[in-house]
Amino acid sequence: MRAFFIGRFQPYHLGHHEVLREIFSEVEEVVIGIGSAQESHTIENPFTAGERVMMVDRAVGELMAEVGERKVYIIPLEDVYRNSLWVSHVVSMTPYFNVVYSNNPLVIRLFREAGFEVRKTKLFNRVSYQGTEIRRRMICGERWEDLVPRPVVEVIEGIDGVKRLRDIAGTDV
Amino acid sequence: MRAFFIGRFQPYHLGHHEVLREIFSEVEEVVIGIGSAQESHTIENPFTAGERVMMVDRAVGELMAEVGERKVYIIPLEDVYRNSLWVSHVVSMTPYFNVVYSNNPLVIRLFREAGFEVRKTKLFNRVSYQGTEIRRRMICGERWEDLVPRPVVEVIEGIDGVKRLRDIAGTDV
Amino acid sequence: MRAFFIGRFQPYHLGHHEVLREIFSEVEEVVIGIGSAQESHTIENPFTAGERVMMVDRAVGELMAEVGERKVYIIPLEDVYRNSLWVSHVVSMTPYFNVVYSNNPLVIRLFREAGFEVRKTKLFNRVSYQGTEIRRRMICGERWEDLVPRPVVEVIEGIDGVKRLRDIAGTDV
Amino acid sequence: MRAFFIGRFQPYHLGHHEVLREIFSEVEEVVIGIGSAQESHTIENPFTAGERVMMVDRAVGELMAEVGERKVYIIPLEDVYRNSLWVSHVVSMTPYFNVVYSNNPLVIRLFREAGFEVRKTKLFNRVSYQGTEIRRRMICGERWEDLVPRPVVEVIEGIDGVKRLRDIAGTDV
Amino acid sequence: MRAFFIGRFQPYHLGHHEVLREIFSEVEEVVIGIGSAQESHTIENPFTAGERVMMVDRAVGELMAEVGERKVYIIPLEDVYRNSLWVSHVVSMTPYFNVVYSNNPLVIRLFREAGFEVRKTKLFNRVSYQGTEIRRRMICGERWEDLVPRPVVEVIEGIDGVKRLRDIAGTDV
Amino acid sequence: MRAFFIGRFQPYHLGHHEVLREIFSEVEEVVIGIGSAQESHTIENPFTAGERVMMVDRAVGELMAEVGERKVYIIPLEDVYRNSLWVSHVVSMTPYFNVVYSNNPLVIRLFREAGFEVRKTKLFNRVSYQGTEIRRRMICGERWEDLVPRPVVEVIEGIDGVKRLRDIAGTDV
Description:
- Chains A, B, C, D, E, F: One of its GO terms (molecular function) is nicotinamide-nucleotide adenylyltransferase activity.
- Chains A, B, C, D, E, F: Pfam families: CTP_transf_like.
- Six copies of one chain form a homohexamer.
- Chain A is of the alpha/beta class and 173 residues long.
- Chain A contains seven helices and five strands.
- Chain A has helices spanning 14-24, 49-67, 83-93, 105-113, 131-140, 150-158, 161-169; strands at 2-7, 29-34, 71-76, 99-102, 117-120.
- The longest helix of chain A is centred in the middle third of the chain and has 19 residues, at 49-67.
- The N and C termini of chain A lie far apart (50 Å).
- Chains in contact: A-B, A-C, A-D, A-E, B-D, B-E, B-F, C-D, C-E, C-F, D-F, E-F.
- At the B-F interface, helix 4 of B face helix 7 of F.
């Protein structure tokens, strides 16, 4: 069985990590879609798709060291800006999958209309484990490193990602 | 060191296989771009990006059984239809890479203009190891299975790919 | 004489109905444009263009039972995201028309700049006869059926439209 | 039961007419899609979508005078340039339909992959009843009027359509 | 040496004028990019790219009467909606330049990531010399003419620009 | 009076030069549109819009040294891929113009349909003064410098343009 899971991963954080751990406990293979892949260098979407591929890849590596080897496909997905085409877009860009994991009402609705089985994921500490909160902390110079897996911290430091976000936000100007 | 290698992989064939074997002999990590990812269901581009991800993944698996484990990223890349933006597009969608392998004059030129190191790949039996020839054989009902790695045959059979190509070509109508 | 009238019809409501009744009293033929045709499955635009074609068609049928047979063309119009091209876009997608009916300042301005006669429509009970209010009632489980023509209720029930809107809004999750 | 039938209608000709007559003998309602709606003013696609709506509408009127009143929806459909999204695009832009009529291998394949019933249409005098041949005759100043229904001749004359085609082809320059 | 300077110029005002005077004191040639060139007829972007070319051209003419003849290229730049492609887009559309002048954090960041020298411009009376304030005054019927160079007033009057903005804002309806 | 003249200028050659000389003899101001501005690095369109702006600017400079100072606007124009929108696109991107000079049947037709005065330009030695022939000579290593104005040779040499074209064509590989 193969699952589909999508996020924007701006950045990948411990909430994503818990969901993936949950998915790994139920299915063998996972396609991870990187949503809004065309976006970067904004306050909402500071990181490129390629940088987010790295984050997801490193985080999945950590997870597999813990739960055992899995087959994972990491696929950047550009927006198509038309909800009625979105499921077909995802399907065409990804290896075949049987089940979708999501907590997003629109994602759930669109996949169910298309006849897919959708499983709702659990929520983990939604206050902190959110991209918005993490990016806010990065901009304000607060501590964000505890909210993401260790390998993601390394990816972000490797690209000097906090500096980029602060530059764009005008904080460092 | 990380290399970038791009193809349309319609389908992945033994020519691609030889180039990858060559790249694996020189660098540790490879980003494989799946070009014209948005195309499918045409005579020139019968397979979806997701199906081509499967072909490349299975073929790379075979290769790694032979040459040892490597880090490989397989990234679908939609066309941007503007040569002057193409390298920036590739860079934004992929993990960082240091060197490009290609035999395509346009790809070579664009990456060199952008300051990348580009290495030309060797050519292997160009008459048969070509997507055009393989698709022609599929349409005409000739033997094509010898021109692609064994796992790619399985992927194509699993999606009944020859039937799709013949349908589109009007051969089965 | 042929008139042009455009709306998003999310959903078609009694305000639209009154405007059409007014137009039918002045001209013989009407082109009804379905704006933002590419949008669907959002809180602002829950229904597809095709579903909105059905709403308009059924409502116009009711109206013609009342005022007599008219020639009506119902044309979905995708956004072009450039105001300076919009009139040309509309003109290319629709049968020729001589006069535009609208109350939207931008629509009026764009058609007048292009040399069209534009007639302002009357306003009918703008508090309730608004898409925003109707969608709000649908989401909150309040009574909305009195604000749209009877055949439109049937179209929306036929596609289980309120459920879709509530799903997307997260009300049913 | 409602059928879907698509053509570019550059222009609508007697071949289309025969297919529609055939469809009307089997189903009560028809959605007629006007393909490549965004195209106009080229040798392959001289007429705008709006002009083609008029041709189809008039021709259907003639047909209904003959076979009795039917419910027909005429919907311009812009290209999406991605085969994997095309069926979803059509579905979103049109009233719900149960069966597709087509002789085009790609259209047949795409709708069948999406789970639709597709019925192949008969072919009627394919040598003359073709858009290419009719446009060639228009450009060369030969007799084309016998190849299209009478009301279509009137629409084309009303917009001075042959002059446009000859202008674009450079014949009149 | 050739500089690049970009603005939306909705409209061109005395703040832009001061920055250009500053740039002219340092470099001989300037490429002036007209950003969001595809936008017009909105409250944020009332003027077309062509109208803004006229404003910039006339204002630059006034400036050169003061500081002497310079080589200036005025280039409309449509948005590409992808920050990672934007610098490549600008570079492809403009004559070669060596240095960028900007106060916009995103513009500064993107050009620096691409390896360009970027110089921050001074700020001049930011309260009044802002497009937002000038458009507000136009809509409210207040005095705006002191905030733009005299030739820009003439361009805006020549196209009856205040009337357009008020029409769109619904103020004149 | 202000004229509009459009070309792709791949590269600007003596045929364009003669047409401009003709236009300058009749009108005072000229808007020169650089068509297919988004194209570059292909055999048909080797040069970027910015490089073509330079060619046109330098060539116009030479011409004005001969016929006297004129007001000229050089505007890159991206394709919109829809003939029915093209005139509106051009109008929105350029300063106002009263008359169009062209020998292209489609350009003539589209502007005339939109109500513009169009004047046909003379033809000058069409065998050699063609972009296709000049690019062929560049690729084949033949003499092309006599077919373009001297300043255009300098622009092309300054960007090593022949090398780029030969690289793309695969001649130098």
